[in-house]
Amino acid sequence: MTIPALFVSHGAPTVILDESPVRTFLGKLGDAVEKPDAILAVSAHWETDTPRVSDAERPETIHDFYGFPDALYKLAYPAPGAPALAEKTRKLLTEAGFGPVETEARGLDHGAWVPLMLGWPEADIPVTQLSIQPRKDPAWHYRLGEALRPLRDDNVLILASGNLTHNLREFRGHGIDDEPEPWARAFDEWASWAIAEGRTEDLLDYRRKAPEAARNHPTDEHLLPLYVALGAGSPGVPGRHLHKSYTYGVLAMDAFAFS
Fold it and tell me: How far apart are CA 181 and CA 29, in angstroms?
């Protein structure tokens, strides 16, 4: 059975410390799919002008945040790297016209290691990371996913990590369990409906089609990984909703599988 591509909302780095429904869900993520032979993480927190993939043999744990509890900076995810997967990824994207695709020995940012540490705490699965291109549109990232679809046949998990809603400027002292703002719920419910109905064209045009699009995503980067997972799914097969919750009133923490 071909492994699905996943999109997860990673939230604040403290999701790994604080009890919440999404932490519970991510802690069982390894049960949602068969154990992969390798993982290609696509995080909102590695931004480049053109696609890059990490060929690090031992990816470091990047603490790409500041002002958080000391406990976070002591965490490390010592998974082995996946240079062979990095090379196959580079080749697939180059052949699909995304070249030149460069490699660098980059570690894992928190958009990657937080869900990985919760879902696969043994850190025994080789992992590499692919960058996103914030100056490119959703269609570009959907095509990236299409080019990467063959990896699923090799039991490679494409783990795309961002947030279904993401506007931290709207955070006004909300508590982690606060009820979602109506504008966040409106976007979340629209996106969940569009994914369930397989409305790919609407999703690609979300800035015009979705309610409160600009308020939920002043910039695209935290939604772009969704399109990679969407493109990596099988054509004509709608996404499957794996999780729905909110944190801090403004972050929809939904997760989806694309078979």
Answer: 27
- The answer to whether the beta carbons of residues 245 and 20 sit under 8 Å apart is yes
pLDDT in tens, 103-156: 999 999 999 999 999 999 999 999 999 999 999 999 999 999 999 999 999 999
| 32-65 confidence digits (pLDDT tens) | 999 999 999 999 999 999 999 999 999 999 999 9
Joined together, the tokens standing for residue 17 give 């410390």
Cβ within 8 Å of residue 119, ≥6 positions away? 26, 27, 28, 29, 30
Amino acid identity at 91: K
Rounded Cα gap, residues 189 and 256, in angstroms = 13
Residue 170 CB partners (closer than 8 Å, separation 6+) = 181, 215, 250
List the beta bridge partners of residue 159.
Answer: 6, 41
| SS3 category, 157 | strand
Please calculate the CA angle 143-144-145 and round it to the nearest 5 degrees: 90
Q: What pairs with residue 40 in β-bridges?
A: 128, 158
pTM of the entire structure? 0.97
